[in-house]
Amino acid sequence: MKTLIVYDTKYGNTKKVAKLIGEGLKTIEDNEVIIEYVEEIDLNKEQIYDLILIGSPNHYGTYTKPIKNFIANLPESSLKGNTYAVFGTYMYKNYQRVIKGMEKQINEVMPNMVKTSPGLSIRVATNKGPIKDEEFPKCREFGIKLSK
Ligand SMILES: Cc1cc2nc3c(=O)[nH]c(=O)nc-3n(C[C@H](O)[C@H](O)[C@H](O)COP(=O)(O)O)c2cc1C
What we know:
There is one protein chain. The protein is of the alpha/beta class. It has one domain: Rossmann fold (3-Layer(aba) Sandwich), CATH 3.40.50. Helix content is 33%, strand content 28%. It contains four helices and six strands. The protein has helices at 13-25, 65-73, 95-109, 136-147, and strands at 2-7, 32-37, 47-57, 79-90, 114-115, 120-123. Strands 1, 2, 3, 4, 5 and 6 form a six-stranded parallel sheet that branches. Helix 1 (13-25) crosses helix 4 (136-147) and helix 2 (65-73) packs parallel to helix 3 (95-109). The longest helix is centred in the C-terminal third of the chain and has 15 residues, at 95-109. It is globular, with a radius of gyration of 14 Å. The protein starts with a strand and ends with a helix. Bound molecules: flavin mononucleotide (FMN). Residues 9-14, 57-61, 89-94, 124, 127, 129 line the site of flavin mononucleotide.
């Protein structure tokens, strides 16, 4: 299985979550995982993935503009994915709005892409993190679940 994990981040926590999910996915030997910062992704490069994971920090109860733009540009891009799932980091509230918002937009622009799992929300201790201790195992487990 070939997976692309796209993330946005301000303080590095969502990037860390992306890496931990990637580690979970790679527990199956043949799985290939590519992790990309949303601002650096090349949408003109032809790539086909079995799974695309998209992750964003919660900013004022929603996901970030770069992630919005990335999803909006997906249909016209050379990047193709058969299935998707989303993840987010948050500090205290409205974490479901981030997950639901991303899923809604993806469903609108790419109605044929199948959601392969409910989204994952990971809590951080302060705006800058770190990820709360009890949240760490959830990231890897999410990846392991998706790898099967
Ligand atoms: C501008 C801004 C707005 C935020 N708004 C919220 C919010 O509405 N709800 C919440 O739970 N966390 C909020 N946070 C905390 C972020 O969720 C937290 O900084 C983020 O998850 C850390 O991820 P990152 O290190 O990948 O940037 C906000 C943070 C920033 C910087």
